[in-house]
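Margin note from the TA: students keep mixing up input and output lines. Inputs are the sequences; the output is the structure of the whole complex. Example:
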Amino acid sequence: MGDVISLAGQNLISPMILCFALGMAAALARSDLSFPEAVAKGMSLYLLFAIGFKGGVGVAAHGVDTGLVLALGAGVVLSAGLPFVAFGLLRVLTRLSVTDRAAVAAHYGSISIVTFVAASALLQGQGIAFEGYMVAVAAAMEAPAILAALWIISRAGGRPDDSPGLWREILLNGSIVLLVGAFAIGWITGEDGLADISAFIEAPFRGVLCLFLLDMGLVAGRGLRQARGALSAGVLGFGVVMPPVGAAIGLGAGLVIGLSPGGVALMMVLAASASYIAVPAAMRVALPEANPAVSLTLALGVTFPFNLTLGIPLYLAVAGAVAG
Amino acid sequence: MGDVISLAGQNLISPMILCFALGMAAALARSDLSFPEAVAKGMSLYLLFAIGFKGGVGVAAHGVDTGLVLALGAGVVLSAGLPFVAFGLLRVLTRLSVTDRAAVAAHYGSISIVTFVAASALLQGQGIAFEGYMVAVAAAMEAPAILAALWIISRAGGRPDDSPGLWREILLNGSIVLLVGAFAIGWITGEDGLADISAFIEAPFRGVLCLFLLDMGLVAGRGLRQARGALSAGVLGFGVVMPPVGAAIGLGAGLVIGLSPGGVALMMVLAASASYIAVPAAMRVALPEANPAVSLTLALGVTFPFNLTLGIPLYLAVAGAVAG
Amino acid sequence: MGDVISLAGQNLISPMILCFALGMAAALARSDLSFPEAVAKGMSLYLLFAIGFKGGVGVAAHGVDTGLVLALGAGVVLSAGLPFVAFGLLRVLTRLSVTDRAAVAAHYGSISIVTFVAASALLQGQGIAFEGYMVAVAAAMEAPAILAALWIISRAGGRPDDSPGLWREILLNGSIVLLVGAFAIGWITGEDGLADISAFIEAPFRGVLCLFLLDMGLVAGRGLRQARGALSAGVLGFGVVMPPVGAAIGLGAGLVIGLSPGGVALMMVLAASASYIAVPAAMRVALPEANPAVSLTLALGVTFPFNLTLGIPLYLAVAGAVAG
Amino acid sequence: MKMHDAKRVEILVEAMMETRLTDALGRAGVTGYTVLPVSGGSGRSGPWSREGQVGRAAGMVAVVCLVRPDRLDPLLEAVFPVLDRHIGVVSVTDTQILRAERF
Amino acid sequence: MKMHDAKRVEILVEAMMETRLTDALGRAGVTGYTVLPVSGGSGRSGPWSREGQVGRAAGMVAVVCLVRPDRLDPLLEAVFPVLDRHIGVVSVTDTQILRAERF
Amino acid sequence: MKMHDAKRVEILVEAMMETRLTDALGRAGVTGYTVLPVSGGSGRSGPWSREGQVGRAAGMVAVVCLVRPDRLDPLLEAVFPVLDRHIGVVSVTDTQILRAERF
Ligand SMILES: Nc1ncnc2c1ncn2[C@@H]1O[C@H](COP(=O)(O)O)[C@@H](O)[C@H]1O
Ligand SMILES: Nc1ncnc2c1ncn2[C@@H]1O[C@H](COP(=O)(O)O)[C@@H](O)[C@H]1O
Ligand SMILES: Nc1ncnc2c1ncn2[C@@H]1O[C@H](COP(=O)(O)O)[C@@H](O)[C@H]1O
Ligand code: NA
Ligand code: NA
Ligand code: NA
């Protein structure tokens, strides 16, 4: 227990977390500090490319076994199943409409790649190994949650727009393509490829992550400021209750398929995190009546900071204790 | 004396200065070379973050003493006092209106963070130590000059717009918040934090600074080209006379509070430099009748290049001789 | 022969080529993966600055001899002569109008700096030396081809817009000014200058190049998708026939002036490559009736990938065999 | 100079719907349009800004079409189903154009 | 398709005044507006461009409001004091909108 | 509020021609104009987008000029030769402006 607290404490005063806090504080104080959209996108492309590539190199180094297939399968099942858990929990905790509940559920079944990146940076900082293919699991978990939410809403009499164009958009959305593509390139080129470009994708990685988290803090803080009122206590409560629930389910899945302690921790992180890029965009097309302010503010303004500060160290400690 | 000249000579053929010169030459020759606004802002965010962070780490390493408080106080006094000197000098040298004189005076009381960055890069290149908290002094010197200028203009019968909103804007403007925030993060996380991200904020720093100076050369050159005519000989003269005057006053302040030779040099640089980001924006709001072409072209097109090429080596040499 | 194939094979599975392929595949599959314009421009400014600077440092290190002057002269002659070859070849292979043929010919007389950068990265990876001034030759080869094409079109009764403004624009276009300026700065500051900023312009270089090629793949793929139909089989054929023809002529030029094997290879690459930045812009002004989709898609969608994958290893092998 | 009557249709639509909108325009035979970026705004669902954003969920674009008056109705009929359930504002202004042969 | 009369108000204003302007719009009950970026221009104070700029002093934005005709006067009255001493150009154009229930 | 008749001239022109166009405007005595970025579009020569582009060959800008009605003809006459052989669309809309003394 003392370990959890000290790990959480250390985590809280890392440059990454402090950068996020700085951004959030600046936005709440209405500072005009901001990153241009193009710079934010550029950093995000860099992070996706680097994390995908390094994941692929990891697979090239340690070979691929049935673990990869099992983990992908577990990820898909989690992503498709968690929305039902979230949808139920939302009914208990909030008065949101069915449409809004389905939209929020899709966000929580899916994953936040930056939470994943922050967690793997923490693991690396502590010298804890994990399976390189977990980044592919992350990619596989983006879409099934959307399918699940659309199924939920259809059954409830809703009328989602699920034209074929939507599916191409979801499966070929930029972040999935870049993540999976970089993973494949890392896998193909292996250690040689990494040696070629490691001064670009490894050395500055944590620094770029800090600046990106600063930007995310700014956007999250601005969202919270503008959405005050739209979020009831029940909705806010869901934002901190759902992550540990998801993590517990992710823990089970990780143990069942026999991941390493680091891998189990990352599976917990994926299950606990909520999408704030791919799913919001898909929901605007498929469920335009859902209020984007609710799900986006919840995912980015409540769950993301919760995971970043308390969640990740907690999941790490639990994974270490249970799977270690 | 020979030393000053050789130092200035070395400085003049450094990549930094040559990049600025390239940008200025390209703009004057009407080349279409240009940096996208987002890239320029991205580089500026990077530089502010890096310089603030490293300053904070410096304070964490060497501890904090009364020196910090004294230096902050000296900075505030300089920033509030220099506008009066500038205002007087402008009356002697130019025929500018009272409003324009007050606006220019605000720019010269405040500071240019890139001049500060260039000077500290030069100090580091020469192995001269300086107080890490000088970056906090730079931040503290941004705003008082604006207050002084508004006081001047009010007393002269002017009608500045000094609504409370303005003050929040000035004190929480993006560059101050980022600089001070990064400083605080560097201070809190110390050497460990620096080790975490030094490959991002230290290794590429000078290279990014070169490209940023290239961009500044482009903007300064374009400003000079477009403002030809708006600047009389007297105004141009002020642009090169005021920096050494400010530096001399900064020298006195630095000696009185007992800074190291490197710290004295930086105090001189701060006093000698003129704001071209925060103050111009504040003046558009508070003194809309002031002609922005005059003060901005003067600060960026005359004083900035003067300090970059001749001023900084001169201040360094003087500080070394007097405080060394 | 086996060597050529193994070199080409190695090249094909390098991160650089795979990134380009990823971009092209994503665009053809209509993924929404994209780089903001500002990020693409930022990467291009970085690459031009770095390659120019390193070229200048190379000249500073090895001194300058008549070789530089000869190579510049050869470059100018090639750039002015190749459009005639291309124009003739287009008459045989395609049914394009005279205007379109002249426009395409201008692209192929001029050069693609990214092809040059990719080739020099490959040379460096193999430890093959080359003359630093080749980057100046690249710059010198941008403009003469435009002059040649305008001469062709005038003789054919066309009416190009060759106002003096056009010439300033062509000679002072941003990429030439940056390349030549950075080359000059590298030359002036030499190894000391490089040491100052090598962590910025050398270490991350290949990684940035990978991301830039990914973006180029996206743009090239989108162009191919949108221009299907505009390109006949003959036009496509020209896109893969002209590069080896140009390379053969470049080989002759390189041998005559006595370049090193690495220098000969780069001269071949320059002759084989086609401009997709400077010349398209100049053609819009000077020959507005030419269809930009034809020449741009050909240069970026056909010739660029051909050179990147097969051309460069081939030219390298030939240069090694003949000049080695 | 000879001018011709035309309509300037300005469609403010959420960014995610841009491709669907331009596809619908294409199907309605409107091949001429220009897309302008939008940096922020405010509506019944509150204010928003693109600053620092990575995702495309919050954000709009402005699509401007100049059309001959007789082409207006097919255009609006094509556009309407796309916007129906989505955020979007359509305005139509009388204008005059040079070089009408292009439209 | 059923269209409704409206006014398209286009306010070109220096970037530093954007928040003050939109706050004033909000106080006047105008919650619908869209902000477009501006990359350069020229006026009595000479030409300017955003290229390579870091500071916000030189630069403008375009704020477009579609309003019902009867809301025009309160809007202009709210906007005027903000622009009074500042760089800004206001134009009002007759237009027609779809879905007027939104305005 | 007192409004004055004016013309809103919107010129969509390929980016390479921007300087030539604004120079021509200047020579015709039109010193007030504002340039808006354009992110994509479509015309007879097919669709295009600025995304990921480095070169300036594919791309347009929108130049907006507000002028007094009597200044319209000289403006159009100055603009026409620049656009003649180039991609460009010009529309002129009746509008009303505040603070006409500025124009
Ligand atoms: N009256 C209006 N004038 C201009 N833009 C508007 C107007 N109403 C809405 N918008 C734009 O449409 C977006 C969504 O509007 P709404 O659906 O009302 O939240 C806003 O954020 C604005 O960008
Ligand atoms: N007549 C006009 N038409 C369009 N934009 C204008 C006009 N006059 C001024 N502007 C814009 O307002 C800015 C400031 O104008 P000024 O205050 O006249 O220098 C200019 O740089 C333009 O961006
Ligand atoms: N009717 C139109 N309405 C708006 N923009 C247009 C129109 N026609 C052409 N454009 C713009 O002008 C560009 C070139 O048109 P074009 O010369 O027809 O290929 C297009 O890509 C659009 O950006
Ligand atoms: Na999840
Ligand atoms: Na100062
Ligand atoms: Na060539």
